[in-house]
Design goal:
single chain; 4-stranded mixed β-sheet; alpha/beta; binds ligand KE4
Length: 471
């Protein structure tokens, strides 16, 4: 093994590509600390070299399509570490990060109390496959401090697990097969949702996935977001067969599209009239739009709620919950099965609990809204120069600049965006150290770590790049 003197620095200096950062693993018996494991664990290549290696073993070189940067005409960055609102790639470049890991990092990267909570929990172990006290703490926090509509909650490991489990439960509870989703909404990659979906699917110009069987497609009906008449027509055509309507109450996966005034209220009313369950997918909006998510912000009580992202503080956690009479149909009490090896993992919940305890502070959401307002105020003078080319939507710390004029209030509006112009904008901004979502059909996610200086730097870059892209 390399000598102690070769001990690497965890926060890499500007490494030259391909250099094998030597490390010292005294705790690993020689047989384990083989050259291969050290090489794969510590070899510091450039993003380009890592992508080339990754592409040999990982489809498209990525573990989630939107990271591939294909729609913005680049190859992906490989991030080495993050701190606050900034990330640092393996080539030593620093960026202001407006992705925040696609939402989870509401407090910024490497938030010290969360790091400490993980460190302390780690000393006790990582997973038991048995009940642990963290599960109780998390359930109590969700049910008593954040979501009054959630009388019972079940922990899972991702947003997809949360939404697919909620839909199965709704079908089991109602005895009905069909669900209604909205064009452009994305609820994760379970088969039942990959029809007319947003996020990564929209990014690649398709809205449905191969491999989804016709029976699944028959049971997923699609309505138009912000168009309550399209919902009424769909329900009328399938009266008595629809188990639930699932939606992002604030649409985030075609870029940010807020609910039209009265839309959510009408949706609640028509679902109650028809005996159809209302499922709010708050994987993005939960803990972000307000303490109690979009349902608090707009005063709607759904029957079931799906959570993810922020709830894990950056580690893999999802959850679904809602009315006790519905949730108690879950095994082992009821006949709707759902399970998970790592559900309620103590390490992940230690991070999530620390996150939620911070969000429970009295003035947190006032300060978060001030952050969103400050960001908008900083870029507004630039946006106002391009009202004939751009639209801008914001709800709190979520926002999107659409490369289409006239406002974006629906999926159809969003789809008019000039994605080529967005790609040129993205490339210009990332060259200036501003890391935006690599797709027109995603949101900017602010964190509490973003500073006034970050916003000023972003506005300066935006001013230059939009002059290049739009004139
Ligand atoms: P996950 O399974 O990716 O944890 O969550 C799925 C999901 C469910 N519901 C909503 C509203 C979501 O936005 C998501 C996932 N969001 C995308 C970004 N828009 C994740 C990023 C990615 O796919 O890499």
């Amino acid at each position: 093994l390399p000598s102690e003197a070769d001990k690497c620095c965890l926060c890499p200096r500007k490494p030259s590509p391909g250099v094998l950062q030597s490390v010292h693993y005294p705790h690993l018996p020689l047989g384990l600390a083989s050259e291969t494991s050290i090489d794969s664990m510590r070899r510091v290549d450039s993003s380009a070299a890592l992508f080339e290696r990754a592409s040999q073993y990982i489809p498209g070189g990525v573990n989630s399509p939107v990271r591939a940067f294909r729609s913005v005409g680049l190859t992906p960055l490989y991030i080495d570490h993050g701190k606050g609102a900034h990330v640092f790639d393996v080539d030593g470049n620093e960026y202001i990060d407006y992705i925040s890991s696609w939402g989870p990092l509401l407090l910024g990267h490497a938030y010290p109390p969360i790091q400490e909570a993980i460190r302390l929990e780690l000393e006790k172990g990582t997973s038991y496959g048995a009940c642990n006290a963290r599960e109780v703490e998390m359930a109590e926090l969700i049910c008593t401090k954040f979501f009054p509509s959630v009388e019972r909650v079940r922990m899972v490991n991702s947003g997809t697990e949360a939404t697919m489990s909620a839909v199965r439960l709704a079908r089991g509870f109602t005895g009905r097969d069909k669900i209604i989703k909205f064009e452009g909404c994305y609820h994760g990659h379970a088969d039942t949702f990959l029809i007319s979906a947003g996020s990564g699917l929209a990014t690649f110009g398709q809205t449905s996935s191969a491999g989804v069987t016709k029976h699944i497609i028959e049971d997923t009906l699609v309505a138009t977001y912000n168009d309550i008449e399209s919902v009424r027509r769909t329900l009328e055509a399938h009266r008595g067969k629809v188990a639930a309507i699932i939606l992002e109450p604030i649409m985030g996966n075609m870029g940010l599209i807020p609910p039209a005034p009265g839309f959510l209220e009408e949706l609640r009313r028509v679902t109650e009239e028809e005996g159809v369950l209302l499922i709010f997918d708050e994987v993005i909006s939960g803990f972000r739009a307000a303490r109690g998510g979009a349902q608090e912000l707009y005063g709607i009580r759904p029957d079931l709620t799906c959570l993810g992202k922020i709830i894990g503080g950056g580690l893999p956690v999802g959850a679904f919950g809602g009315r006790a009479d519905i949730m108690d149909r879950l095994a082992p009490l009821g006949d709707v099965y759902q399970a998970g090896t790592l559900s309620g993992n103590p390490l992940a919940l230690a991070a999530g609990i620390t996150m939620l305890q911070t969000l429970a502070e009295p003035d947190f959401y006032t300060r978060l809204e001030e952050k969103g307002q400050a960001f908008e105020a900083t870029i507004r003078p630039i946006l106002d120069r391009y009202t004939d080319r751009l639209s801008y939507n914001r709800v709190g710390s979520l926002s999107t600049i659409f490369f289409t004029p006239g406002g974006v209030h629906s999926n159809a509006d969003a789809k008019r965006s000039d994605t080529e112009a967005y790609a040129r904008y993205f490339r210009g901004m990332i060259e200036r150290g501003i890391y935006l979502p690599p797709s027109q059909f995603e949101c900017i996610f602010l964190s509490m770590a973003h500073s006034r200086e970050d916003f000023d730097r972003t506005a300066t870059a935006m001013d230059e790049v939009l002059r290049e892209v739009l004139g």
